[in-house]
Structure formats: structure tokens, C-alpha cells
Amino acid sequence: MTNSTTPTIAVLGAGHVGPAIARLALDAGHSVAIATSGNPGDLALVTQLLIPGAEPLWPADAIARADIVVLAMPLHRFLRMDPDALSGKLVIDAMNYWPPTDGRLPSPFNDESIGTSEVVAERLHDAAVVKTLNHVGYHELETYARPSGSVDRRALGVAGDDPDAVETVNTFVDRIGYDPVPVGPLSAGRILQPGGPVFGTVLRREDFERAVHSPAEQHRALGRAEHYERSA
Amino acid sequence: MTDQRISSTAAGGKETGFPLVLGLDTFGDRTNTADGQPLSHAQTIRNVVEEGVLAEQVGVDFFGIGEHHTDYFPMPAGDVVLAAIAARTQRIHLGSAVTVLSSDDPVRVFQRYSTLNALSSGRAEVILGRGSSIESFPLFGYDLADYEQLFEEKTALFAQLLEGGPVTWQGTTRPALRDQDVVPHLEDGQRLTTWVGVGGSPQSVIRAARLGLSLMLAIIGGRPARFAPFAALFQQALANFGRPPLPVGVHGPGHVAPTDEQAREEFWPHWRELIRLVAVERGFAIPTEESFAYETGPQGALYVGSPETVAQKIAANLHTLDATRFDLKYGAGGLAHETLMTNIELYGREVIPRVRELMKE
């Protein structure tokens, strides 16, 4: 981390989610780089028109200068990435295992007792992984962002094992317009996943807390993915 | 491209030169009888033909059918249904909305729609989609993990087929073609009007521009205004690829009834149920009364209300998005066929003339 009070952000992914997060970070005064697996030259036009102010870079360059790296690519694309590229970094995992676009991912992604961010953290061994930004739809992320103290401000769940990393991410979440609600270690991040009580919702803090802390919801989200299977 | 062209407004196509086109889309949403009994798939399909014929009678410019393979959208062969409508109409344009090209063969899609074009004397259009409804992938043996490559390759081949003449092509998603004559040929000077349906991925916008295909923005939730930069991205990308400007269209869901209250009351329970069905697969939140109020309000993506309310919203969004085409996705599973016919009647006779009037202002 640098001493700067506004961490530099690298957003990896320029599909639906990446540009939305990048714009929120820019609006909050962060310096933002965006990268995909491809040539940054191909991203120039997208950046200029959709994410004005962000800098398109090669992933290695974006990561090198970033205090926070946001994973905003499809999970199956992440699996093609060299895990060492994120060595020593603070990483926000905004991804979800989404079979309709990811296809069937290998074990242990299909193991319901392990959260996908835990699998991501295991691959990244020496990065500090924090799960957030994954449970609000990309088209709603910017619509609902509000300054601190707004009455209709919404909540984003935050899960991570490294307290300093979680604290930094809490501050980031607050700056981009949401109330950060810590839900516990990375393993507790399962409650933020598809099929869980807050996935696809944009709740106010008290409603969010009620949803994640209700015993029935916890059982449903953490016990089995029955809800997801049944509805599918 | 000049800045002037990017900032041009769509008002009556004055600066872009594209005509204002106002259409309807359906996914063949399974309908009910007036007293709430579900109709058979077969009767639902026959009803769609009647809806398409009525659309022409009341002055709608385009009628589109979206490919789906589910019990609530039993509409896997929309081109066959469009052919039946073509045989009973003279003026209305007919097309897919969308064809899930990723799980189809571009050669077959081109053949089916050029056949429809022959039957309708040049009224066929195609809107290609990568498929946000993905039930066709397992059905036809495709792996969802390949969807990007499938769509990229197949759209490129489709663009090549549009040029006419023998096709030579090689890729990984279908057998190679060498000097292949693909029939039926279009009549002199004709070209299948082709769009790419885009849900918000910037790369998809650039792909459409690269291939010289028009852009159809599918906006089914949230603020439509957030798509405005996409129209600019599209026109700028066309210019960078050395292509002339192409029209931008908008597809949005809604329901028209004589009053705002009636429209909301009729649509809400069926919309909630529909989204509940697709929510798990597509990551949508289950609508609440609060979210429905937002989406049907001036900032939201749903065109639900009286003809005046819906017309105002369409005109406002066409202006904001620099678009010259709007297709209302009408219906939601469980609404009665009669209710849909009223919706179509009001859309054609009242909404469309009012939008044309508003776009001139």
C-alpha cells in the first residue's frame, strides 16, 4: 500500500461489470487503470467514451501500480490468468460462478461447502482477497450509489480474512457510495453468492443485515444450495 | 467521423438520415384464456400470428420474434411463424428478436431469413444475439464456456454471407466453406437488414461496428440513459473502421393499456412471475413493488402505462440514446391474448403517431 489516502485502483475486466466499478472509483477520486487479457490499444476507444479518466494498460502494468486490484472478469477467464501476477496484492473478488456464462467449472467450484472466493484466494496464495461488489447487478451498481449519510443508501457485504485488507476495502466501498457491511471471514462470503439471501438485491443496511443474519437465511445460504438448485 | 455527427440527434432522423422505425417484439410468451387458464403451446403460436397481422393493420413498422426454448416461451422456430405472418401482410417488416446465433448455424440462419425475405418481398430482418437466454446451448450440445468464441466466429461468417456471392470461410465452430454458393440469393440490390442485439458489453458494440451491422440495445432494467455512451461508442467505432454511420435501435419491455393504473395492474403480477422464473438463470433480482415503481417511472426501463405515458418515455429515450428505432417487447406469460391485442392496438393507433409527433418537436 502507498501512503496516499486514495488508493490507486486496477480493474481487470471491461465487460459489463468492470466499467461500472471503474466509473464509481473515478467519481470517488481514485486513479483508475483498466485492463483485459488483450492489447490496451484495443481498449482505448471503450475507455475514452465509456470510462473517461481511466487509463487502459496491460494487466501487469495496471497491477504493478495498484493498491487495490478488482477482479471483474468472468470466473472462467480468471482461471486462465497467471496467479503469480497478483502476488502480494490486495484483491477484491467481484466475480461469481455463473454456470450460464462460465459453463461447468472444475472442482472445487462445484463444491457447495467452499465459497468461490475461497477457491480464488487459494489460487492466489499470497494475495489478500476480499469478497464484495459481487451481489449487486452491474446495471444497478451506479444507479444506487449514494454519498455517505444519504437516507436511502444501500449496503454491500464485505468478507475477508485479513483485517487490514477488509478495512481498506470498507473505506473503498464507502467512498464509491455504499455502506460496507462486514459479514465475516472469506468463508462467510458464501452468503453473498448466487442463491444466497442478498444476491441480486440492493438493500438498505438494516434490511441487508436482517437478511444475512436471519438463521433461516444463513442455513439456506450456507447449508445447501437447495434454493438455487430448486429454482433452476 | 466528425464530432458533429456523434452529437447528432435522432429527431426524425434529421441528421443521421435514418427513418424512425417503431416495432413490436414477442418471445411467444405463453398466454392464458381471459379467465386465467393457460393455453397450449400450439394455440399460443397461432395467437402470435394474429398479433403480427394486427400489428400491420394498426400501423406498426416491425414485428420481431425472439428465439426461446422454454415452457413459458415456446418459440424455438420464430422464422416459421414469421412466414405465416408474411403470407397475410404486405408492409410490416418481420424479423428475429433475437436469433441465438451462438447455438445455430449461420448458413442455416441466412437461408431461413433469406427465404423469409423472398416470401415477404424484402421485408425480412435479422437481429443476432449471443444469447442472454441460454437454454439453447445444452439443447444443441454447445458449451456455454465457448459462447464468446461461438458468437464471434459465427457473426463474422454471417456478415460475410450478407455480402452475397460464393463464400470461403474457415473456423473452429462449423465446417469450412470453399467457394460455396449459399441460396436462396436475394433479389437485385437487396441485403438482409441485420442488427446485433447488445445487452451492455462494450466489446459487443465494437464487434457490431467492425462487422458493419446495426446496433440494437436491449435495455431491460435500470436507467436507459446509461446506454447513451454506447451509441457514441458505436458511431465512433464505425468511423474508425472506415464504415458509414448505421442506425441504433432500442428494445424495451412494456405493456400499454387505456390508463396507467390498468397497465400497471395488468402487467405487474405477470412480470413478477416471469422475472421470478428467469431470475436464477440470469442473475436478476426478484422485482418488488418498489423496484417496479422505479422501472415504470420516468427513469426506469419498463414502458408500462397509458399510450401517452409510453409514448413520452419512448421519445425521451430515443432522444437520449441517439436512436431511430424502438421495439416494444409486449406481453408476459399469463396475460390473455385479448389483453395483448388491446396492447398492440393502442401501440399502433396511439403510441406510434404520438412518438412521431414528439420526435418532430
Overview of the structural elements:
The complex is a heterodimer of chains A (232) and B (361). Chain A has helices spanning 17-27, 40-50, 59-64, 75-78, 99-102, 116-123, 138-141, 163-175, 205-213, 215-223, 226-231; strands spanning 9-12, 32-35, 55-56, 68-71, 90-93, 128-131, 155-160, 179-184. With 232 residues, chain A is an alpha/beta fold. Chain A contains 11 helices and 8 strands. Chain A is globular. Chain A has an 8-stranded mixed beta sheet with strand order 3-2-1-4-5-6-7-8, with helices on both faces. Chain B is of the alpha/beta class and 361 residues long. Chain B has helices at 3-6, 41-57, 78-87, 106-119, 136-140, 147-162, 202-211, 228-240, 260-282, 289-296, 307-321, 337-360, and strands at residues 21-26, 62-65, 93-96, 99-100, 124-129, 167-169, 177-180, 193-198, 214-218, 248-256, 303-305, 325-329. An 8-stranded parallel beta barrel of chain B has the order 1-2-3-5-8-9-10-12, surrounded by 7 helices. Chain B is globular. At the A-B interface, α2, α5 and α7 of A face α7, α8 and α9 of B.
Concise synopsis of the structure shown:
The complex is a heterodimer of chains A (232) and B (361). Chain A has 11 helices and 8 strands.
Helix- and strand-based class of chain A?
A: alpha/beta
Q: Total helix count of chain A?
A: 11
Write down the Rg of chain B: 19 Å
Tell me the structural class of chain B: alpha/beta
Instruction: Please provide the count of β strands of chain A.
Output: 8
Largest interface: A-B, 32 and 31 residues
Give the overall pLDDT of chain A as a whole number. Answer: 89
Q: Which oligomeric state applies?
A: heterodimer
Poorly predicted runs of 5 or more residues of chain A: 222-232
Rg of chain A (CA only): 17 Å
| Strand content bin of chain B | 15-25%
Q: In what order do the strands lie side by side in the largest sheet of chain B?
A: 1-2-3-5-8-9-10-12
Largest sheet of chain A: 8 strands, mixed
What proportion of the residues of chain A form beta strands (DSSP E)? 5-15%
Alpha carbon gap, first and last residue of chain A = 42 Å
Query: Which overall shape of chain A is indicated by the principal axes computed on the Cα atoms?
Result: globular
* Shape label of chain B: globular
Instruction: Please tally the β strands of chain B and state the result.
Output: 12
The succession of helices and strands of chain A, N to C, reads EHEHEHEHEHHEHEHEHHH
Please tally the helical runs of chain B, counting DSSP H or I stretches of 4 or more residues: 12
